[in-house]
Amino acid sequence: MSSSLKAGLVAPPGAGLFAGVGVAELAAKLRADGPSPRDLVEIALAEAARWQPRINAFVTLDESGARRAAEQATEELAAGTDRGPLHGLPVAVKDMIDVRGLPTTAGARHFTGHVAEQDAACVARLREAGAIIIGKTTTHEFANGPTGDLSANGPTHNPHAVDRMAGGSSSGSAAAVAAGIVPLALGTDTGGSVRVPAACCGVVGLKPTYGAVPTSGVFPLAPSLDTVGVLARSSAECRLAWTALTTGETAHGQDGLPSIGWLEPSTVHPVEPRIARAARLAVGEPSTVSLPQIRDLREAYRVIQGRESYAVHVDRLATEAELYSDEVRDRLFAGGDVHDWEYVRALERRDRVRESVMEVFRRVDFLALPTIPLTAPPLGSREWRVAGEPVDIRTALLSLTSPWSVLGLPAVSVPAGRVDGLPIGVQLVGPPGSEYRLLSATEALSGITH
To answer: Mind telling me the catalytic residues?
Structure first.
């Protein structure tokens, strides 16, 4: 297989410092009398303020808390305490995830004024690694939407074209990384909510194996599907964050380039031909694999996610239904219409298809396909044409990512160039527990021209 994918950020015009310098380089400079953690935090806060009017990436900025943490990080490094490569680096956290002392709004009017009392487990692990939380990023309302343009604090705008979606639901985290405000950010991914915005914004987005990172302190969307993921400028940065989130427990990859099986995306959903060609070219010369049952997982996702989301919100719907946006409220009520037998059959379908997919992983290391079948749509749009066919944008955005969420498999979206001036992504999917190998594989492939 030829090497033809360079996993790195496709930076928009005017991107800040962190779009052009890697975590490893920053870590080296911090330890060689370069910029201090204080300096990096001030840069991040200034970039957040500069970009915020254009892209609305943040709900809350914690200037005082970030500065206090920067002082502590500076003192620790000076005293010889080194927590690792993230020590002293500014990061952002999706506003579905609790950060002690900061609001968690979940992009919803219901949670106005709610302040978290404790850090979520994933945030605690980042702090233990020395990372500095500068603020909370915009999320689609209750993370229940892949467009990222529906939130109590307004839509997130794509840094590459502010009239376009950033993708969702981890819209603000992806936009903040793409704009160079922070080198990495946390998101959540239930059906594509890290990978979709990663593709729209031209960054790397990792959705881990279900259960690999604890979700305590994360407001749920669909508990049997929810994961905590990472958005970063490159696979290397993602891997460093992944190591911190899993407390250093990693499985190192095999020698040499991996074998990749190409799943023809049009068998799952209509795809813009130029995106399909670019994504396939990005992974070199993959073999072609067939998974005819994969379409079944799209329907299974609708049933499982809908039913579980309704269960999370059923009491709130009974007492505060008027506080939801019409779109999210309608989606939740649709989940309430799912019958018990439909939910059970969806779980059974998931188990059957998982066996077929694991059989494929005995022949290839990873599967590849585009992350999303279209470029970032215009803000507020809900219908589009893809490959000449009319599509529902929300369905289209989740069509190539949600099957792997149903199976609980790890997947990573990496930039694969541009179409019509907008970033596109290619998605690699692996067997359970293969996050480190996935990220190493995307880093090893090189040569694409952005």
So the answer is: 94, 169, 193
